[in-house]
Amino acid sequence: MGIRINNLTNDNRKTVASMGNFSVIEYEKDASVSPMNAVDQYFMSKMDVRRRQVLVNLSGSNTVITQAGAMQWMAGNIQPTTGVKGVGDFFGKMLKGAVTKESAIKPEYTGVGLLALEPTYKYIILQDVAAWGPAGMAVEDGMFLACDGTIKQNVVARKNLSSALAGNEGLFNLTLQGAGVAALESNVPLAELLEVQLDNDVLKVDGNLAVCWTASLDFTVERSTKTLIGSAVSGEGLVNVYRGTGKVLLSPVAPTGSLWAATNTIGAKAAAPTSNTFGQ
Q1: What is the pLDDT of residues 248-259, one digit of tens each?
Q2: Residue pair 267/118 in contact by the 8 Å Cβ criterion
Q3: Residue 224 main-chain phi, psi, to 5 deg
Q4: Disulfide-capable partner of 279 in 2, 158, 194, 208 (CB 3.0 to 4.6 Å)?
Q5: What is the DSSP-derived secondary structure letter of residue 147?
Q6: β-strand 52-66 against 144-148: which pairing, if any?
Q7: How far is CA 234 from CA 58, 84, 157, in A?
Q8: Measured between alpha carbons, how far is 5 from 114 in angstroms, rounded to an integer?
């Protein structure tokens, strides 16, 4: 009994990150091309624009929660569920989904085997949620991909909702809390992110450049200066403000939205499955 998967990694597909039960494979180049897009794919690979895919090893004692529609294939005795534990839990999940850009119902997978998520051109960031402290971590909208079933998901609101609306920002963010690993989709690689440590201090950011931050930080949207005239002189308007003690993962650069709309392929072609054995 058991399943053996050959060719999971090879000369073109390598494991680039792993943490806990999660691993990330990256395609050195996209070999499944046509003459019409071969030139684009060649230069994309030279600029590190590559497909990446999350694999989760389920041993029977762990579960994994994913964004809806993220599963590509699973091998072994794995059972998916909705993760809904009653009517109250259903409405609670629907409410959380309504105020964030995350799916309301996130599937949970349990059993013994290997779960592969859809490939994406975005960068995959693996985070140890416990390392963010008791309060956990808040993530920017749309970044959540998957996490261990031991992670508690919640929603946190900004303190000054009116300024968030004026700044065209979201009012709520997903928070992850507990012991386990989370996989996030990012427009920029982990190597480019700055880790800003705050000790009862303030960080002001012009734009949505914060990838994730300690959930206990006070997160508001404010004018860059105390007066409207001062904001006009400085050339800045509203900024995202993080106050307190904790850390922020900050991107110094960000690709344009149109670029990622064109290149992100969460329904990319299935990866062909070094050899792993499960269920023995």
Answers
A1: 999 987 655 544
A2: yes
A3: -65, -25
A4: 2
A5: E
A6: antiparallel
A7: 53, 49, 28
A8: 9
